[in-house]
Amino acid sequence: MHWSDVITDPSLRNLPYKIELDAQGRIIMSPASNRHAIQQARLVRLLAQRLSDGEIATECSIGTHQGVKVADVVWMSPAFVKQHGDTTPYPQAPELCVEILSPSNSAAEIEGKIRLYLGYGAREVWTVGDDGQIDVFGAEGPRETSVLVETQAPLKI
Q1: Per the database entry, which stretches of residues form a coiled coil (predicted)?
Q2: What's the predicted TM-score (pTM) here?
């Protein structure tokens, strides 16, 4: 299956799941929770307060060699938006990709997504735990603070 098939298939609309594709084009669904939705909204507000330019998007599709992955929240610079517009899925990762952790995520899955996003051009990847704590990752590995968002303390939503 291709991503264009997923977004045009009427039977896949309004599902209470996040949908991604694996490397073989198979659909992978993750259940959504209200906690996840609240954290997603908090992240959007945080980014809107701290990053004045660019675009923020939720459920952003990114095409990779391991299928289409969907970041929970992303921030895209004006240059990224100018280059890619609203191409679906994006052929590279926006500068900041955020994954909200849920019980259905394995550590290996999240580590793989961090590597994928960074390998496809993200400058930074954040993961958000149940407690709202944000862990920051760059190409060199875990970071104490973000290079994209100015902050004096560890990030938390």
Answers
A1: none
A2: 0.88
